[in-house]
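TASK: fixed-backbone design
INPUT:
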């Protein structure tokens, strides 16, 4: 049997080293949990020891000690020179199925609080007073509702109307039936993938990009082709060439405060990208979730300002400017596409939570003010983190951003995956760069957020310094698999 991919196992292990005790016991405990849950089924062959130990940033002897403990418990089978397997045969585990994501960003949300500083996650950590006021108004409004079953697959009319008016205020005429309300932007992306993508279809993304798009593409068995990014942002020539040559099912862009690099695509370039896509009948998905978090004035208009609604689809959310617990996102597109997506959504949830949508309808007219307030707070934290990193980790390479929530950092040696393991053992979570790239490139990078308050940022940098001092120098790994369109 082919060995389990080391990166996949690394993701499943999650924050295995964040507890107390010897590392081999912590690792054995987590492997035991995976075996007992069926996520490592009988007959599964574990990765080669040297490779896995390197990726976990531990000594091979630590890994062998964990394996040996589980062998004595009857959970693993080891054979000198041949490898290590989960006890049993592949036939024993034929009914085992591992579903869902294995991406570290998503798995981080599933882990219980354990004292690890979450520099890998990027969202506000508390609801603002404006949200509480909005819910009070929504509850008052609900008291007068009659003749409404509460099922609105396309979204509550009050929220669709408010969102349509917010686009019109930005110079993008929009009707309420050109809006679909979703359970956060993540559901919006998943619906678009489900609608457009069949197994094997090409989808054009950036490299790196937001993992919230990569995971639905993986589940749909899509073929993510990618255009590289350089120091200044998207490689426009590569993007246009790949679109023309591959004719993807759609193209996905984060043009404003790109996640993870923070760059912004200029207006003239946006126009060219849209014109190229429209000329070749390829829809573009514009992820606008971070577009309101500008530190230096208004960013360029969204892609919808440069092309028809039938080809340009905008995705938005309140999670980054209000709170992630308010699961309100949306899609803006032409009414025919919105109607088809609403039918898909109806089979999933029959419509979103009405009180939350009524509260969101109260908040939408104040999005500009809420965004400016959030951006001022984030800028102060961004500047503080940049200053600390420049002083305490001067060999790390990064560019300050003009908005958004994250820094993209290139390490002077080693790789982000093994360093993330070392950082975890020092109580701070960072996101490996390879986990944000469709081909696993950018392995020498990490993404960290600057959302926490100054006290937490200071503690996080202190822990990162200790982790970096403990991190062994290794040759840089940043290979790109062959056969990838660039």
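OUTPUT:
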């Amino acid at each position: 049997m082919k060995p389990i991919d080391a990166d996949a196992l690394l993701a499943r292990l999650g924050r295995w080293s964040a507890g107390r005790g010897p590392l081999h016991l912590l690792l054995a405990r987590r492997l035991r949990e995976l075996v007992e849950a069926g996520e490592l089924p009988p007959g599964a062959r574990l990765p080669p020891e040297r490779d896995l130990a390197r990726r976990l940033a531990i000594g091979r002897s630590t890994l062998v000690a964990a394996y040996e403990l589980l062998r004595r418990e009857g959970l693993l089978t080891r054979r000198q020179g041949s490898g290590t397997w989960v006890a049993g045969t592949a036939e024993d585990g034929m009914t085992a199925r591992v579903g869902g994501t294995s991406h570290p960003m998503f798995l981080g949300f599933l882990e219980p609080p354990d004292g690890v500083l979450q520099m890998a996650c990027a969202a506000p950590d508390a609801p603002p007073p404006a949200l509480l006021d909005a819910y009070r108004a929504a509850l008052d409004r609900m008291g007068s509702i009659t003749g409404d079953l509460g099922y609105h697959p396309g979204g509550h009319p009050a929220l669709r109307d408010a969102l349509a008016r917010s686009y019109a205020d930005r110079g993008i005429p929009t009707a309420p039936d050109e809006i679909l309300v979703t359970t956060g932007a993540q559901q919006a992306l998943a619906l678009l993938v489900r609608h457009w993508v069949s197994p094997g279809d090409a989808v054009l993304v950036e490299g790196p990009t937001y993992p919230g798009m990569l995971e639905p593409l993986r589940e749909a068995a899509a073929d993510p082709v990618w255009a590289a990014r350089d120091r200044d942002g998207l490689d426009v020539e590569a993007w246009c060439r790949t679109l023309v040559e591959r004719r993807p099912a759609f193209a996905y862009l984060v043009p404003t405060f790109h996640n993870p690099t923070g760059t912004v695509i200029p207006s003239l370039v946006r126009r060219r990208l849209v014109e190229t896509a429209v000329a070749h009948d390829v829809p573009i998905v514009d992820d606008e979730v971070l577009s309101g978090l500008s530190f230096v004035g208004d960013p360029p208009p969204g892609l919808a300002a440069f092309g028809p609604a039938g080809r340009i689809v905008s995705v938005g959310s309140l999670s980054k400017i209000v709170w992630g617990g308010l699961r309100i996102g949306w899609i803006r597109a032409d009414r025919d596409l919105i109607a088809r997506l609403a039918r898909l959504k109806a089979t999933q949830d029959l419509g979103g939570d009405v009180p939350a949508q009524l509260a969101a309808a109260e908040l939408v007219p104040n999005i500009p003010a809420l965004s400016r307030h959030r951006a001022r707070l984030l800028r102060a934290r961004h500047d503080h983190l940049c200053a600390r990193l420049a002083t305490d980790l001067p060999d790390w390479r990064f560019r300050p951003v003009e908005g958004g929530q994250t820094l993209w950092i290139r390490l002077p040696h080693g790789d982000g995956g093994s360093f993330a393991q070392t950082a975890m053992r020092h109580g701070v979570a960072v996101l490996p760069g390879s986990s944000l790239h469709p081909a696993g490139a950018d392995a020498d990078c990490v993404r960290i957020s600057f959302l926490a308050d100054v006290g937490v940022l200071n503690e996080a940098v202190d822990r990162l310094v200790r982790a970096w001092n403990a991190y062994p120098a290794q040759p840089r790994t940043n290979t790109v698999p062959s056969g990838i369109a660039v």
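COMMENT: Residues 6-99 form a domain with the Arc Repressor Mutant, subunit A fold (CATH 1.10.10.10).
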